[in-house]
Amino acid sequence: MLHRRTVGDVMTQEVVTFRPDTPFQEVAALLDANDIAAAPVLDDNGAPLGMVSASDVLRHETGRPDPQGQDGNDERVWAKARAQAAGALMSSPVFTARADWTIPRAARELRRRHVKQLPVVGDDGLLTGIISRSDLLDAFLRSDLEIRDEVEQDVLGRILGLDEGTVVVEVRDGDVTLRGHVPEPRLIPVVVGLCQGVDGVVAVDAHLAAAG
């Protein structure tokens, strides 16, 4: 089988975190200094309790739930606007990811939850990293050389056992072109399907024929 990269492969392991009693000014300073949009708030054991975002900081600084004041009389958002520490400023409950999730699953969860980051937790519920939209994009923005090597070495060589040079692989901007021959006609759609499953592949154009 192909090695499909997981959240654990691409997540950030050195994570800026806060405690519930971290003062507001420290929260704002750390988000700015590290150029990050959000960071998790952890309990005494290291389990995520919530997330504090730059938007939360902005609401606090404007003194309103949002700059246009469209949150009305919602006491929860007004309390966040008056928060003096991370525990009152954070959004909770927090949605989390697991290191063994596939990249597509993490992407779907980010979209479904309408968030830009997900803390990653282990079996014990403790923080092990954080995954962001940019991390997921990086996973798909692979170089053409990386894609070609995986197709040649893993798909054609290790999985299908084809002799080197049997199929010539060209990759340009993620588009894979295959030229050559395979032992049996039934292998042609198999080769194409496996190549389409390689991370970073945009499309596969197969010019393959059965040998003999």
Automatic annotation (TrEMBL):
Keywords from the UniProt entry: CBS domain
Source domain of life: Bacteria
Domain CBS span(s) in chain numbering: 11-68, 90-147
Pfam families from the UniProt entry: BON (PF04972), CBS (PF00571)
Domain annotation BON: ranges: 143-212
Presence of keyword S-adenosyl-L-methionine: no
SMART domains (UniProt xref): CBS
SUPFAM superfamilies cross-referenced by the UniProt entry: CBS-domain pair (SSF54631)
InterPro entries: BON_dom (IPR007055), CBS_dom (IPR000644), CBS_dom_sf (IPR046342), Diverse_CBS-Domain (IPR051257), UCP036990_CBS_BON (IPR017080)
Protein name (database record): CBS domain-containing protein
Protein species of origin: Streptomyces mordarskii
